[in-house]
Write a structure and sequence with these properties.
The protein is mainly alpha-helical. The chain has one domain. 74% of the residues lie in helices and 0% in strands. Helix 21 packs antiparallel against helix 23. The relative contact order is 0.16.
């Protein structure tokens, strides 16, 4: 290991320490990227790595492949929350759970997973689930920590990976040219459902042990909880309210449109003139796919406004508020994580990883899942982890005869697991707020189920099953 590689390792260790101590993740990643690039240039005797980091900052900051899907998806999520449509979807899905206590733990995880597919945002999923799930599980006698762990696992285990609009899939598509609908229909269901099934089974068993070990003090509302966390505009109604099936269907609108427009159905053809006009007589599929996601979200907003005319007046404002939130809290993480990834790649860590895989090809799939998991746990972002690290595994996958899109599915699943067990991720912080618990407690409770699920995915992948 040379001096530049050593500097990169020290930067990674320093970043982990500072994030654990509560420093802003974006500040830490950007500073680590700049320091690593500066050290690489000093060792190499030429100015190359630092300009690359700056270039990637500017390019990613303005890259519509991330800005358009993320910001429009968050805008749509805000509109759903404002109109109450997502709440009606949650009420519809949780209705069967109200009479069967022993199914609450797996049921809550499954409901969170299902809601996260159309909503995409894990934090928004947790926010719309919380006002329904927390009183439901409290009435059944569950402690706040168990409720928070179930809520966190369901909202963040990886449901969004089954939505063609998920930004993680665009990262893989930019390398492989495999469209996001094809990834969703062909590559992701196996790993995602294995991860879900194993993690759900483990947390179900653990929850019984947690509840037996918890005392009355853990079940009581903490004294510092002066009131409920911020809730959706529609959250004041009774959990037993009547479900509006039309509102419950609105969150699914963009999802249905994207599946109809993509392979293998191709049942809906959106003219290029609406999305990405042809250049030199050829369609830019990457640009077309990205903007098609944005268009689907906009259609969802229009449908939400039509279904809830009483709230339509403020929907455009809510959309742009959500888009701003997406840029400030999600795109910013992707930008800084991309810079960090480029810096450590320039320092030679990617090459070292390639050499390790070349010496032991059997390590490709375990590393493709667990390295992003570790990065996601530190950064708190599954999207940032996928964007930063997938490129490290793309060429080794080609070199050793692996399908790089299937390897991308492992990276996505690992990144989602890492984000879920991160005490600094937005969804963990939200679940902790909703259940008056510590984010570190929730992160510890979901860690074992997620590690078990990821290990199962890797084992089955290596066996050729998924």
């Amino acid at each position: 290991m040379g001096l530049s590689e050593l500097a990169a390792v020290l930067a990674v260790v320093g970043a982990v320490v500072l994030v654990v101590r509560g420093w802003d993740v974006r500040l830490v990643l950007l500073a680590a990227a700049l320091l690593t690039a500066t050290a690489s240039d000093a060792v190499g005797g030429r100015l190359a790595a630092l300009p690359t980091v700056v270039l990637n900052f500017l390019a990613t900051f303005s890259n519509e492949k991330f800005v358009v899907p993320i910001c429009t998806a968050m805008g749509f999520a805000y509109v759903l929350r404002h109109t109450g449509c997502e709440r009606h979807l949650v009420l519809l899905l949780t209705a069967p759970l109200r009479r069967v206590r022993w199914l609450l733990v797996p049921g809550v995880v499954l409901v969170g997973f299902l809601v996260n597919i159309p909503v995409i945002s894990q934090t928004s999923t947790a926010v719309c689930l919380g006002p329904v799930i927390v009183p439901l599980m409290r009435a059944a006698g569950y402690s706040f920590a168990t409720i928070g762990a179930c809520l966190l696992l369901g909202a963040s285990v990886g449901g969004e990976l089954l939505n063609p609009g998920a930004p993680e899939l665009l990262t893989v598509a930019s390398f492989t040219n495999v469209t996001t609908p094809e990834q969703v229909s062909r590559y992701l269901p196996g790993p995602v459902f294995v991860q879900l099934a194993v993690a759900l089974a483990v947390i179900w068993v653990l929850s019984a042990w947690w509840e037996k070990a918890s005392g009355p003090r853990e079940r009581a509302v903490p004294e510092h909880a002066s009131g409920a966390p911020e809730q959706p505009a529609d959250a004041g109604r009774s959990p037993g309210e009547r479900v509006n099936f039309l509102k419950a269907a609105v969150p699914l609108v963009p999802l249905v449109l994207l599946f109809l427009a993509g392979p293998p159905l191709h049942a809906l053809d959106v003219p290029d003139a609406w999305v990405a006009p042809l250049k030199a007589g050829k369609r830019d599929d990457g640009l077309y796919s990205t903007r098609l996601i944005g268009l689907a979200m906009l259609v969802g907003v229009l449908v939400a406004m039509a279904v809830t005319p009483g709230r339509a007046r403020d929907c455009v404002k809510q959309f742009f508020d959500g888009a701003g939130y997406g840029f400030a809290n999600i795109v910013s993480l992707i930008v800084t994580a991309t810079c960090f990834g480029k810096a450590i790649e320039g320092a030679g860590l990617a090459a070292l990883l390639g050499k390790l895989i070349a010496a032991a090809p059997g390590l490709l799939e375990p590393l493709a899942a667990f390295v992003p998991l570790a990065f996601g746990a530190v950064s708190g972002s599954g999207m940032a982890s996928t964007q930063s690290l997938y490129g490290f595994f793309y060429q080794p996958a080609l070199d050793h005869g692996h399908d790089p899109t299937a390897v991308g599915a492992l990276v996505g699943v690992g990144s989602a697991a890492g984000r879920t067990m991160s005490p600094v991720s937005a969804v963990t912080l939200m679940c902790a707020t909703l259940t008056f618990t510590s984010p570190f407690v929730l992160a510890k409770r979901v860690a074992l189920p997620l590690l078990a699920g990821t290990a199962a995915v890797v084992a089955l992948r290596m066996a050729g099953v998924v």
